[in-house]
Amino acid sequence: MAVSAESVKKLRDKTGAGMADCKKALEEAQGDESKAIEVLRKKGAASAAKRSDRIAKEGVIAARVSEDKKRGVLAEVNSETDFVARNESFIQFAQEIADAALAANANSHEEFLLAKLSNGATISEEVGAQTGRLGEKLEARRFEMLTEPNGFVTSYIHPGAKLGVLVAISGSSNAVALGRDIAMQVAAMNPMALDRSQISSTQIEKELEIYRTQARNEGKKEEIIDRIAKNKLEKFYQDNCLVEQSFIKDAAKTITDLLTESGNLKVTGFVRMQLGEMHKHAEPAAEEAVA
């Protein structure tokens, strides 16, 4: 039966369960609010609501790449305690969430939460059920997808599963070892951007102003201050743009050198996701004038 948005909201206010869970419970209960609450309690969603004010700050990052290596996903799944996050069943649950997000080809957080797991439940429903069973708040916090139709996507999960990376490379589907090396580079060196085109003019001017101020404070002559600032900006690019960084396994080479040696391949994007932090998703931007 059809249920009104007002009924869904009322049930949500009473239980704290998710909107999708409330709507489904009301449909199952034929609009009977008391029965809908029982449905939510049986699924663990209502008990999950009691823990909604808690903070799920622990957890893991999970990755999955499609069989054809054209798409990859990272997902962050949180728990309240590290004890739960280290449990094998929780790690497997996080992996199932990444699998579901990839299969659903989710394009938004809402689609991500509505993706179906192998047991037929949505991610949102199963998070609520698992919260009820485990007795602490769980959260499927976020996901990021990366695609490369003209090459491949590779993933890297750092030991401990608190940090994950996806890298997309065009020009070949057979340079997986190189892709993993670059993914490890992103994990270790945390680049700000893929290349100079992704550094905004605002950021560039901010850096230049800092370098000019530093030079003046050091007593440098005014006529050479701009030159000093531009030289320091070059070092900024080398430290913060992935393709200009020195390779962590051989500092004599840059990432661009590696790509050229491997047949003029090109990194077209990367995603770096660290537990509890905002994601870093870098793909080529529209052309922008760079100072």
Walkthrough of the structure:
- Among the domains are: 5-49, Ubiquitin-associated (UBA) domain (Helicase, Ruva Protein, domain 3, Orthogonal Bundle); 53-147, Elongation factor Ts, dimerisation domain (Tetrahydropterin Synthase, Chain A).
- 46% of the residues lie in helices and 21% in strands.
- The chain is built from 12 helices and 9 strands.
- The protein has helices spanning 5-15, 19-28, 33-43, 45-49, 82-85, 88-104, 109-114, 123-134, 176-189, 201-217, 222-240, 255-261, and strands at 58-65, 71-79, 139-147, 151-157, 163-170, 246-247, 250-254, 266-274, 280-282.
- The strands form 3 sheets. The protein has a 4-stranded antiparallel β-sheet, covered by helices on one side. It has a 3-stranded antiparallel β-sheet with strand order 1-2-3.
- The model is unreliable at 286-291 (pLDDT under 50).
Describe the secondary-structure layout:
Elements: H1 5-15, H2 19-28, H3 33-43, H4 45-49, E1 58-65, E2 71-79, H5 82-85, H6 88-104, H7 109-114, H8 123-134, E3 139-147, E4 151-157, E5 163-170, H9 176-189, H10 201-217, H11 222-240, E6 246-247, E7 250-254, H12 255-261, E8 266-274, E9 280-282
Antiparallel strand pairs: 1-2, 2-3, 4-5, 5-8, 6-7, 8-9
